[in-house]
UniProtKB/TrEMBL annotation:
Its main location: membrane. It comes from Pseudoduganella ginsengisoli. Belongs to the COX11/CtaG family. The chain crosses the membrane at residues 5-23. This is Cytochrome c oxidase assembly protein CtaG. GO terms for cellular component: plasma membrane.
């Protein structure tokens, strides 16, 4: 009986351990809720030519799930494919304790994800926000000139959520 219970406990641990990588892989295969580029970072291409004959509208969206205010400092911007652009998101922790958070990007339409190249992004790592801290976080990106010609608008959306409920015990007392 003890052996069966140990086997069940190990299987449950294994399932829980593998759940996140399996979820990320399923999202990547289906092209939904893309978390980051496949390699996690993007190097600038060597001889990028800016395609000034095309203008892409990038709409910026933000969603907050947790104890903070989260927003983009601008609603949209116009960029040429191949042109380096920077946008800034602002987050304010309105709680009296420290929280760990992570942002997950998504793109609309879904097929633009491989063409949206982030050079630097706050979404690459977890953010620790102290009590009542405000922070401006940039996203540096470019759009690959190979983007299909019929795409005129891209929506970049971030969902910012609490990771583990880390609380500064001294601030709570």
């Amino acid at each position: 009986m003890l052996g069966k219970l140990v086997v069940i406990a190990v299987m449950m641990f294994g399932f829980g351990y593998l759940l996140i990588p399996v979820y990320k892989h399923i999202c990547e295969v289906l092209g939904i809720n893309n978390i980051t580029q496949k390699d996690g970072t993007v190097a600038l291409p060597g001889n990028t030519q800016v395609d000034t004959s095309r203008t892409i509208t990038v709409e910026l969206d933000s969603n907050a799930h947790g104890p903070w205010r989260f927003r983009s400092t601008q609603r949209s911007l116009q960029v040429h494919p191949g042109e380096l652009a920077t946008v800034v998101y602002e987050v304010v922790n309105v709680q009296p304790h420290t929280v760990n958070a992570q942002a997950i990007p998504s793109y609309a339409p879904n097929q633009v994800a491989p063409y949206f190249k982030k050079v630097d992004c706050f979404c690459f790592k977890q953010q620790t926000l102290k009590a009542n801290e405000a922070r401006q976080m940039p996203v540096v990106f470019y759009i690959d000139p190979a983007l299909p010609k019929d795409v005129k608008t891209i929506t970049l959306s971030y969902t910012f959520f609490e990771i583990d409920g880390l609380k500064d015990k001294t601030a709570s007392r």
